[in-house]
Amino acid sequence: xxxxxxxxxxxxxxxxxxxxxxxxxxxxxxxxxxxxxxxxxxxxxxxxxxxxxxxxxxxxxxxxxxxxxxxxxxxxxxxxxxxxxxxxxxxxxxxxxxxxxxxxxxxxxxxxxxxxxxxxxxxxxxxxxxxxxxxxxxxxxxxxxxxxxxxxxxxxxxxxxxxxxxxxxxxxxxxxxxxxxxxxxxxxxxxxxxxxxxxxxxxxxxxxxxxxxxxxxxxxxxxxxxxxxxxxxxxxxxxxxxxxxxxxxxxxxxxxxxxxxxxxxxxxxxxxxxxxxxxxxxxxxxxxxxxxxxxxxxxxxxxxxxxxx
Amino acid sequence: xxxxxxxxxxxxxxxxxxxxxxxxxxxxxxxxxxxxxxxxxxxxxxxxxxxxxxxxxxxxxxxxxxxxxxxxxxxxxxxxxxxxxxxxxxxxxxxxxxxxxxxxxxxxxxxxxxxxxxxxxxxxxxxxxxxxxxxxxxxxxxxxxxxxxxxxxxxxxxxxxxxxxxxxxxxxxxxxxxxxxxxxxxxxxxxxxxxxxxxxxxxxxxxxxxxxxxxxxxxxxxxxxxxxxxxxxxxxxxxxxxxxxxxxxxxxxxxxxxxxxxxxxxxxxxxxxxxxxxxxxxxxxxxxxxxxxxxxxxxxxxxxxxxxx
Amino acid sequence: xxxxxxxxxxxxxxxxxxxxxxxxxxxxxxxxxxxxxxxxxxxxxxxxxxxxxxxxxxxxxxxxxxxxxxxxxxxxxxxxxxxxxxxxxxxxxxxxxxxxxxxxxxxxxxxxxxxxxxxxxxxxxxxxxxxxxxxxxxxxxxxxxxxxxxxxxxxxxxxxxxxxxxxxxxxxxxxxxxxxxxxxxxxxxxxxxxxxxxxxxxxxxxxxxxxxxxxxxxxxxxxxxxxxxxxxxxxxxxxxxxxxxxxxxxxxxxxxxxxxxxxxxxxxxxxxxxxxxxxxxxxxxxxxxxxxxxxxxxxxxxxxxxxxxxxxxxxxxxxxxxxxxxxxxxxxxxxxxxxxxxxxxxxxxxxxxxxx
Amino acid sequence: xxxxxxxxxxxxxxxxxxxxxxxxxxxxxxxxxxxxxxxxxxxxxxxxxxxxxxxxxxxxxxxxxxxxxxxxxxxxxxxxxxxxxxxxxxxxxxxxxxxxxxxxxxxxxxxxxxxxxxxxxxxxxxxxxxxxxxxxxxxxxxxxxxxxxxxxxxxxxxxxxxxxxxxxxxxxxxxxxxxxxxxxxxxxxxxxxxxxxxxxxxxxxxxxxxxxxxxxxxxxxxxxxxxxxxxxxxxxxxxxxxxxxxxxxxxxxxxxxxxxxxxxxxxxxxxxxxxxxxxxxxxxxxxxxxxxxxxxxxxxxxxxxxxxxxxxxxxxxxxxxxxxxxxxxxxxxxxxxxxxxxxxxxxxxxxxxxxx
Lengths: 309, 309, 356, 356
Ligand SMILES: Cc1ncc(C[n+]2csc(CCOP(=O)(O)OP(=O)(O)O)c2C)c(N)n1
Ligand SMILES: Cc1ncc(C[n+]2csc(CCOP(=O)(O)OP(=O)(O)O)c2C)c(N)n1
Ligand SMILES: [Mg+2]
Ligand SMILES: [Mg+2]
Description:
The complex is a heterotetramer, with two copies of chain A and two copies of chain C. By secondary structure, chain A is an alpha/beta fold. Chain A has helices at 4-27, 44-52, 67-72, 77-84, 119-132, 150-161, 189-195, 209-227, 256-263, 267-270, 272-295, 301-304; strands spanning 59-63, 108-112, 138-143, 166-172, 175-176, 179-180, 200-203, 230-235. Chain A has a six-stranded parallel beta sheet, sandwiched between helices. In chain A, strands 5-6 form a two-stranded antiparallel ribbon. Chain C is built from 14 helices and 13 strands. A six-stranded parallel beta sheet of chain C has the order 3-2-4-5-7-6, with helices on both faces. Chain C has a five-stranded mixed beta sheet with strand order 9-11-10-12-13, sandwiched between helices. A two-stranded antiparallel sheet of chain C has the order 1-8. In chain C, helix 1 packs parallel to helix 8 and helix 9 (216-232) crosses helix 13. The mean pLDDT of chain C is 96. The complex binds thiamine diphosphate (TPP) (2 copies) and magnesium ion (2 copies). Residues 143-145, 173, 175-176 of chain A line the site of one magnesium ion.
């Protein structure tokens, strides 16, 4: 049962993610981060609840929009900022950048900027888990757009056929770049999961990390008990433009009202008491990470051709 | 309403297909046809009923297993044998062979040996039909194996989203090469069609060309009336090995009993009166086509580099 | 002609103009691509066209690269000319099967019964930390395959020369690699039609060295040639290869007869790439034309790193071209020709946008 | 060594032996592929292994090339060594995205945090009317991409040399192009381990001409060299390139110093292919080594026609190699060297299966 301690812990992580991204927004104009950023603001609770539901041996796969997942799984902040800034102290020596965050020490095994391409990776790691009897669950987090790609169909079919230990999580923010899900999908996500006989659950309150944790934990327990794959659709909201640090309500493809409605329910906005209790320590931690990251040098010519083969 | 004349006409076409393929079996050992052949024996009624339900402006797309479709749509026999034998008189000058039959004069727009790769072709031609207002239906015939490929998902989704005039027909012989559909698909074909909201019908009596014609005609009518795509699953039986001219009941992956049961229902076997009435003329027609095909020369060096760009 | 100020058009506007022209010229031409109809309009190359021609003809798409490309086949078979867009050429790999197994083969495989006129536009990312999966320049993969026509337009001029010809006259499938960094640059253009828009172009003449270049490397080659002439009196022939398939080597061979020295500057990896193919064409014709080792400039033999510091080392630039050229002409690495100070092309083009 | 009769192994059996060996050596090695467990056993290369090791480890797959390849990534990341099989290399294009955008980049892109040891086996079809979609030899596409290791084993010997090394020791992803026509041929094999199984091999020595070959063209090159020596006293160095990525050109350059003449014989199209890359490596090192124009032999620049008559013209064979070699060495097309009567390789290998 999640306790108050659990609430506080998850709240803190969610706030940490938000403040990290707000720091990114702050420093971006100074060109300290010279690469595209896909912000998770509005979607933090999903990653937080999911990672809280995992065990240490579990494996995680994400997309180009994985700042939240990185932090939620326990990724080091200095290594993250260094990575975003293209420094040698980055988790991947600066070669990965924002779109390819990863943190193998906590099971985060990669994030891909090719939509849906990581779905079979999660399933393959689950197949390995089953073959080797490791008791691992593979967590695969993807956007609603992933479901249109053919590989999603291939992957779900295979995971179901072999009853593999994988938790599929669709972060449904109803958008792929600027296109609404209505104009992209003739199918319902629930029915798609059910097509393969994959048990499906939906969370409408995607801002509620406690709820995400609770449902995800029960999915993970069922998977670990040998029940095969599970599918979790989580409604969420992308606050910023698809890529970059700005807002984009003025371009006619979506509505500010929906954003305001979402904010009205977001604990990171409504629970100002918790914010007040935590924000200073968090901001200090972030500031220290930025300083440490900036102290790390850029990778040099000696790194250009290492790790190719 | 199908009349006796319709029965006779379709029976004749089905028998023609069977006898053509039996002729192929007969001449294959002499190496007159130097390329892989994927025989339709057992599956003839599907193509016959489908083509009977089409109108002249309609377009057809098939697989490497399309001898039946070629003949059913009205393809010229001499050009077919010449094509199989690699002669210049072949419908595609011998460059296509058995796996890539086509007959644009009757709307047969191509057949591909890459499983499922023709599904989007049919849908694209249907999109063109809709854009240009041509009143065409696109017929797309594929095996059960096609449904596993990612592109099937992409294609069905798009056809449904845009309500395109396409008739998807799955020839379900329950096999992909030697693998049973049970070991390949965690989903039901009906549910897959329904996932996209594509109206679905199933024909169990895939040997019954009258039934195939009747159901396909009603699908085509609904499509032509602007109702969007339709999906037809037709149970059928592949009598011969996956590729080649032999039988393969001795290899443990399938059962002769099912074959015998199928034969007991196949009009081409049960209706011996019709067979007797038609076979001689058909065989004469085939023999003449083989002779004419053999009289056609092989393509020469002048053909090697034509039609590349 | 003589006194008129030359017309200036940006790469993005040249694209937009030709897209507009193609849609305007035939009701049976369509554009399909993720975001083709949105306010960003494929980096400005389709902006406003969905409003002008309707969303049926300038059509947003779900995420379905393989399916979308197969749909283009069906469109072409049934009388519609499709233009596909991919905002990164990397994504075109998801449709490699349709392009290589189907599109490249449809005409030949069926003995000439069908043609598949179509244009697949793909944008090559570079700079600003695009990283390994958003930066590839995959022209060589497709140029290897008979049946395809592959182009890499280096300027607004070549876009205006070539796209109207492709969409109105040419009957085969074409893949175009448009370089993202070119989009915002301005070019002088001349509207005189060309006899063969797919031929290579000699865009600068000299006598010491031949530089064969593609895409944005054509700009770098031109700038390098100017630098070399100004700082060392070295003069170069610069050839814009433009179309990578069925290359007529005459222009290159004629140039080499004069210069005897060759640098190939392409946007991708040299191995099994444009540099390799140009070398093959030369030595199959006459290896004795080469008086010195050939230099090939392209991306370093690694995936593209995201860090700016590594990205700057990863790509060839003005300095690399000048250095390679000077050491070839002078016959030694310590050639004494001063090198330009600029470290990275992207920084330059952010400040200087032309006209070129 | 001296008196023992040499051991003879067929290509298919060499594959079967190495597959068996890999599964036997580690419980964490698996084979995945359509039909990998059936009675045809990928043309005999996996026959019986599903019974021996279980269907979990020798696993049939649905039709899902992209998905299957992505699954291999996940397996490799979680401690399992995957061997994928494709009965035709053409189908591997459906997984081009996984191979090029993910597998080739995973190690570098993440700064060395991950490795993806795996072997992707693909079979190149040829002859018996495979046609345009079942006959491609796509090694050049993948050899262009940094991060991949691409091999084309020409014999049972090279399979036995290389596969055990790959599956037990090598830590990167490898794509192997196995030629279908080699499967039924017998080869003399020597079990002495090699220092570097990925290096090119000099397999015959001569002084007039260098033939660099891949896959089954190595056999044709050897047969041509024998013919040339017997019928014209022309002697050739024959180099089996074997691995197409990170080619060490030393062997080729050393040979060219002696011969000055180069023929490249590859199983695919020359443009942007192996021939092009070998030419690049040579002229980047020293173009003056080439005393005559290079000849590249490969498939005709068209999709593969199905008709036997055209197929025989489409592929290079013994006669083509002999003719190209003789005209190079004699310096003229009417070289006077008698050409072998055989018109097609497939007919020969149906009758003569070795040992080679
Ligand atoms: C295969 C592929 N096609 C297109 C793109 C361009 N693209 C990047 S993100 C994106 C939208 C994805 O939407 P979704 O999966 O819902 O994720 P979200 O961005 O909403 O988190 C697209 C189309 C891509 N990266 N990969
Ligand atoms: C993309 C692709 N993968 C694999 C193959 C090899 N292959 C040829 S036919 C076939 C089985 C297809 O089964 P199905 O679609 O049911 O058609 P059927 O042969 O039963 O008519 C396979 C796997 C192929 N041709 N294309
Ligand atoms: Mg989304
Ligand atoms: Mg089947």
